[in-house]
Amino acid sequence: MGRNIRKRRSPLAVRAVAASAALAIGGGGLIWANFYASAHEGNSTQNQTKAATTQVATIKCPDVGQQLSNVPNQARGEVDGELATLDQQITDAYQRLATTRDAQTRDASFVQNSILGPLKDRRAAIIDRIQLEINRVGGNAPNSLDGLATCTGQAADQTQANTGGQNTGGQNNNGGATASPSASASASATAGNGGQQGGNGGQQAGNGGQAGNGPVAADFVDITKVQPNVAQKARTQAGGSAGTFSSSCGVNANKKFNTDNVIVAPGVTNGAHHLHDYVGNQSNDAFANNDTFAAAQTSCANQGDKSSYYWPVVRIQNGTQDFDQNNDGGGKEGNVGAIKTVKQAQIKFVGNPKSKVVAMPKFLRIITGDAKTTTNGLANANAHWSCTGFENKVQLTTQYPICPQGSSVVRTFKFQSCWDGVNIDSANHRTHVAFADAQGNCANGFKAIPQLTMRLVYNFAAPTIQNGQVKNAYAVDGFPEQLHKPATDHDDFINVFDVNTMNKVVSCINNGQRCR
């Protein structure tokens, strides 16, 4: 694997009992003010996530990996390692942002001179190395990479704008999901939550959260106050495929966790910067390869399914600590609180309303959603949050639902269902698969494959919001600078079905059967 085999993650000590806020970018500098954002400031027994008193910034950097659509196979290991280094640089810079409030207060140019400027220089060096690696093996590194070194500060109102209000142009609008754009959900939040979206004296503006990096009150909405926004599914036409194949793989009761992501950062320890739940394949870590997956044990009842299904954990920010409080990817990087085991994890493969499906190639990798929507925007968002009893009415992308008594939180994923017919992965881990359009059509050259759908149900007490403060918030794990926004939710899949079982999946779906 070359350089990227060594551990690239340095320990972080994210302290955010008090952090610093950026009001705006202007005139070449940032204006900063103090804020408080802690579950423990004043009264730690209240288990309360306080909203901050003024605006807060995170760090926004161009996503270099998404610009790499064509990397020669010989260079991918090295390039993936360098991309992981870029992620680490952002994490380190955010940690410095969160722990230098006094200096920022005294010097309006501190952030630019001491954080963003040095970050640009470090990123430029890594981007140069990426270009060299690609060109060294005969590839052609895009010239546009040169302009991706500069990062900016992002104010709190900008993070809300990036993740609040609509999904237009994202994965959800590409035929791959049943929910319509969630503008109605965000528009309803002000009325449903006592006005915490605005007009609350600025209490909403801080990063909030038990570790000072989210979520805030505006990230939640009473689902009973949201207008229905789920569109009807396309009807299966003659020639379509209406069957299903379900695989029962448990709920990770054996607690297989790690903070790696072998798809995006193979060979890199803590490549995800957040903790994953794993079901199915029991050998998935940063150093696994296809041979490892094929020889692994599986938690799936059908032993012909050794696929790896993994997603970021959900935590309750109630002031408690979990086993990873002092670990990279855990408390050291702002992922804090009690990890919740899912009550149900339903895995189902479905068909295509327009055509028959073909078998997935073994070891196909698919990532759905985007862990960096807070800074990237919603183009690749595919998060769906709802409550039992509301799933056919309301699906939320940019807010977490507050469910009524007796109802449970539900995360739903609908993966890309069109494959390019050749590749099991791509340089940016996206372009080898795609969503069908609303009628089920795949783009030219792409073939319909069984669509993986997942439904994760959680059983915990609903958070409450009073006076712009959220108590006992829940949040999905994420990169620290992404502020635990709901739109950052994502899911990962590696196909390790054996040939006979995959053929059964295809046959059941194409023949309209219900199989498992």
TrEMBL record:
The chain crosses the membrane at residues 12-37. Residues 192-212 have a biased composition (Gly residues). Residues 158-216 are annotated as: Disordered. It comes from the Bacteria. Keywords: Membrane, Transmembrane, Transmembrane helix. Residues 263-495 form the DUF1996 domain. InterPro entries: DUF1996. Residues 158-191 have a biased composition (Low complexity). This is DUF1996 domain-containing protein. It comes from Streptomyces sp. R35.
